[in-house]
Amino acid sequence: MDQEKQGAEGSKPITVIGFEGSANKLGIGIIRDGEVLSNPRHTYITPPGEGFLPRDTAKHHQAHILDVLQQALDIAKVSPQDIDCVAYTKGPGMGAPLVSTAVVARTVAQLWNKPLLGVNHCIGHIEMGRRVTGAVNPVVLYVSGGNTQVIAYQLKKYRIFGETIDIAVGNCLDRFARVLKISNDPSPGYNIEQMAKKGEKLIDLPYGVKGMDVSFSGILSYIEDAAQSLLDSKQATPEDLCFSLQETVFAMLVEITERAMAHCGSEEVLIVGGVGCNERLQEMMGIMAAERGAKVFATDERYCIDNGAMIAQAGWEMFRTGHVTALADSWCTQRFRTDEVEVTWRDD
């Protein structure tokens, strides 16, 4: 639960530091009235064919978080006295990494005698995307390793119009990368994207759109089972498989996004989340939007991928409208729905 608190005094600039560590990206960012002062990040990278386990990811965050914190302060050229609020990711995410990051945020808030503020990870992506791109009231496609949602703002909430009913699109891509033993550096999704650019043959794969929702588990199971035989028989190359998987899952995402745009009468679509960096997804969305006379907004890897500045930006929006989190309520949760948050900072 959040408590009410005056978030600003007069016109004094508000400076917020944000801690993000919900998955394998550890980031700390500092925002001052919408301006990104710093945004360093450190990524936990595992060997090809392996994912990242919560315990090992938490150990990574614990080992690097103080160095990243010092980098954030040094790059921003601010001291703890300049910080007005300490924001951290409350959820959703992986339990151990979330807690390991929140512990440091709570400690820093107490050491610096600053208000603490728990932020919804998904809201962080949306508010950072809106700030960076200038999108006013877009339909949002939020796509990452842990989440896949089509979202639109209405009546003080970010409403979920459609979502995955099983695994996230990023998780689908990452798990297929393990089948092909694709490198996790800088990320499996990025490496699949590069391989897909060289693909020439489109393999027919299951298409899992169910109304406004999508399903990726079936297409993943199918391509996992078929991959080796297709490769052995030379019916497809690894590049063809990456191309086919990308084209199919992105077509599904574009379809449900277009349906949400039609329902809302929106002329803007904003793509956020780690998978949002994918240029092919942006291209396919752009084709759909152009046919509707709409615009596509997206950010690059600085802000699409999990980062501390997005938590600071959402924290800034919340803090200036009166939110803080009591220390007793500064827990983390692996399940924290986007539509659970009351969006008090938007007047439209």
UniProtKB/TrEMBL annotation:
Gene3D superfamilies: 3.30.420.40. Substrate binds at residues 142-146, 174, 189, 193, 278. One of its GO terms (cellular component) is nucleus. GO terms for molecular function: metal ion binding; tRNA N(6)-L-threonylcarbamoyladenine synthase activity. It is an enzyme of class 2 (transferase). It catalyses: L-threonylcarbamoyladenylate + adenosine(37) in tRNA = N(6)-L-threonylcarbamoyladenosine(37) in tRNA + AMP + H(+). Residues 41-312 form the Gcp-like domain. Belongs to the KAE1 / TsaD family. This is N(6)-L-threonylcarbamoyladenine synthase.
